[in-house]
Write a structure and sequence with these properties.
The chain is of the alpha/beta class. The protein contains 4 helices and 5 strands; from the N terminus they run E-E-H-E-H-E-H-E-H. Strand 2, helix 1 and strand 3 (48-58) form a beta-alpha-beta unit.
């Protein structure tokens, strides 16, 4: 079961990037929440970028993990929103759009744009 999700944190000078692969569901969302919380503690003024482009399934537990991470980020001094890379990955983008989270989450099409904070059309 442990292999349902892959999580890799990349500490860059300009950002902390968490690469997520596999499935984000009821079994794996707790691990994602833990990685988000840990990464938020290590930002040192850098943005946190979640790369979800290699996620094949994204359930309601994943949406809750993003919402909680966004709230945690907002509660920190020098608030910097989570930057979420979704590309055109329908398993991830579709639930975000259906719930209206696309209006409140900072979504990007690639990691470089997310690190820079520029929204691609």
């Amino acid at each position: 079961m442990e292999q349902l999700i892959g999580l890799r944190r990349e500490d860059r000078p300009d950002a902390v990037v968490v690469h997520v692969t596999g499935a984000v569901d009821g079994l794996t969302a707790t691990r994602l929440r833990t990685v988000i919380a840990t990464a938020l503690d290590r930002l040192d003024g850098r943005p946190l970028v979640l790369d979800l482009t290699e996620v094949g399934f994204f359930g309601s537990s994943g949406l809750r993990a993003l919402a909680e991470g966004t709230e945690q980020a907002a509660a920190r001094p020098g608030f910097e929103p989570l930057r979420i890379v979704v590309d055109h990955n329908r398993p991830v983008l579709r639930p975000i759009e259906l719930t209206g989270y696309d209006a409140v989450l900072a979504l990007y099409h690639d990691v470089d744009a997310a690190v820079a904070g520029t929204v691609a059309e």
